[in-house]
UniProtKB/TrEMBL annotation:
<keyword id="KW-0540">Nuclease</keyword>
<keyword id="KW-0255">Endonuclease</keyword>
<dbReference type="InterPro" id="IPR040255">
    <property type="entry name" value="Non-specific_endonuclease"/>
</dbReference>
<feature type="signal peptide">
    <location>
        <begin position="1"/>
        <end position="19"/>
    </location>
</feature>
<dbReference type="InterPro" id="IPR001604">
    <property type="entry name" value="Endo_G_ENPP1-like_dom"/>
</dbReference>
<feature type="domain" description="ENPP1-3/EXOG-like endonuclease/phosphodiesterase">
    <location>
        <begin position="147"/>
        <end position="378"/>
    </location>
</feature>
<comment type="similarity">
    <text>Belongs to the DNA/RNA non-specific endonuclease family.</text>
</comment>
<dbReference type="InterPro" id="IPR020821">
    <property type="entry name" value="ENPP1-3/EXOG-like_nuc-like"/>
</dbReference>
<protein>
    <submittedName>
        <fullName>Uncharacterized protein LOC112054117</fullName>
    </submittedName>
</protein>
<feature type="domain" description="DNA/RNA non-specific endonuclease/pyrophosphatase/phosphodiesterase">
    <location>
        <begin position="146"/>
        <end position="389"/>
    </location>
</feature>
<keyword id="KW-0732">Signal</keyword>
<dbReference type="InterPro" id="IPR044925">
    <property type="entry name" value="His-Me_finger_sf"/>
</dbReference>
<dbReference type="InterPro" id="IPR044929">
    <property type="entry name" value="DNA/RNA_non-sp_Endonuclease_sf"/>
</dbReference>
<dbReference type="Pfam" id="PF01223">
    <property type="entry name" value="Endonuclease_NS"/>
</dbReference>
<keyword id="KW-0378">Hydrolase</keyword>
Length: 406
């Protein structure tokens, strides 16, 4: 009797295990993807290989708020936001608005991707960062509730991002592919500055010409010009809604295209893959420092900005440096990767701008990093210990570092 009861309980338990849902970030999420909330947060994988695993009966919320309605071959009514429940495998149910079974990969928003929706938004927090600046969180507002994806320390007086902060885990290497690139969004952080138009070929040429005159033709070329350089990269995030949220002006700064598509991109790709292989659970601070210079007609080095404000003060600097500080709280180890954002420095001039001992050149522990650190067209690059980095870059938040993350 007791043995039979035990077997029935065991069979029931095994049936529930077999009815779990497993969704992979590369194969089971469509486009345009609704924003997905799980356990009160934006959806993230829960294993290192980009899988979302749910128990039978576990619920998630889908929302196309601002992007039409949720579409699926199984829908029985048009809804903007609704819940779905794991029914095993890749099937979900909600008998109030779906016929069963409903395969998860077929959920979409009715608006096409090129309409730039669902629309991410930002909000200032009642927390401050370096210089007393208010922290800005970027994410989505669903039914009046805000769900952050990452945060930015943004200098609202001088109109430039100081750094963006986010997490990078092994599953970030398995980001959702074929996600359209939306337009960048401002949300009023740049006040009356027409930041959307500053990167047009004509406007950036005019901006640089204010400082170097006719020499602008030698600097702003088809091969080298200024782009909107992400701090937190699009593909540093797993799902489409978080990838799209990176297209916010508090998360970008003027970056020379050779560096953008060269060593900065190489670092982003290599770092994601390395964190995946090593199994690190990290916090990333990626930011800017200083103002890049060019030589004018008089042979003087002049700082470059994209705009003058109403008081004729230069704002929206072209940064001298872009950096990524990678920190693993569990081991208290970290490292700083730094790139010089200027293809027009000579090798000796760039060397003068190295403000620490380059531990990537000194050590053989960074063979995973495939950048070309001495190629000016791709951006001169170097690496620092975090304490060394702090000697020059003062705005990095305080955290305990006991060693180098390799």
């Amino acid at each position: 009797m007791f043995q039979r009861l035990y077997l029935l309980i065991l069979c029931s338990f095994n049936a529930q295990i077999n009815q779990r849902c497993v969704l992979n970030s590369r194969t089971d999420f469509g486009q345009p993807l609704p924003v997905i909330i799980r356990n009160g947060e934006l959806l993230l994988p829960n294993d290192n290989n980009g899988n979302v695993k749910l128990n039978y009966g576990e619920e998630m919320t889908l929302s196309c708020e601002g992007a039409g309605t949720i579409t699926h071959p199984s829908v029985t009514q048009q809804l903007t936001t609704a819940s779905v429940t794991c029914a095993g495998g890749d099937n979900f149910r909600n008998d109030n608005w779906l016929t069963f079974p409903a395969r998860f990969a077929m959920f979409r928003c009715s608006d096409p991707p090129n309409t730039n929706r669902p629309i991410h938004t930002s909000r200032r927090k009642n927390r401050t960062c370096f210089g007393g600046n208010e922290i800005v969180q970027v994410g989505y507002t669903i039914q009046g509730q805000f769900y952050p994806s990452f945060e930015s320390c943004f200098d609202h007086a001088n109109l430039h991002p100081i750094y963006s902060k986010y997490t990078q885990k092994p599953y970030n290497a398995l980001y959702q592919t074929r996600v359209d690139r939306p337009y960048f969004k401002d949300d009023g952080h740049y006040r009356n500055v027409p930041v959307d138009t500053l990167f047009s070929p004509r406007n950036q040429r005019d901006a640089v010409a204010r400082f170097v005159g006719s020499l602008v033709e030698t600097y702003v070329t088809e091969a080298q010009h200024l782009s909107r350089g992400h701090l937190a990269a699009k593909t540093d995030f797993v799902f489409a809604f978080s990838e799209r949220a990176t297209f916010h002006y508090v998360n970008c700064a003027p970056q020379w295209t050779g560096f953008n598509g060269g060593n900065w991109n190489t670092l982003e790709v290599d770092l994601r893959d390395h964190i995946h292989r090593a199994g690190y659970d990290t916090i990333i601070y990626t930011g800017t420092e200083g103002v890049s210079t060019l030589v004018d007609k008089s042979g003087r080095r002049v700082e470059i900005y994209l705009y003058n404000d109403v008081n004729n003060n230069p704002v929206i600097r072209v940064p001298q440096y872009f950096y990524k500080v990678v920190y693993d709280p569990s081991t208290k180890r970290g490292i700083a990767f730094v790139g010089i954002n200027n293809p027009y420095y000579t090798a000796s001039e760039a060397r003068e701008l190295f403000f620490c001992e380059d531990i990537c050149r000194r050590s053989g522990n960074f063979s995973w990093l495939s950048w070309h650190p001495d190629n000016p067209a791709e951006g001169y690059t170097f690496c620092c210990t975090v304490p060394d980095f702090r000697n020059t870059i003062m705005h990095l938040p305080e955290f305990e570092v006991t060693g180098v993350l390799i």
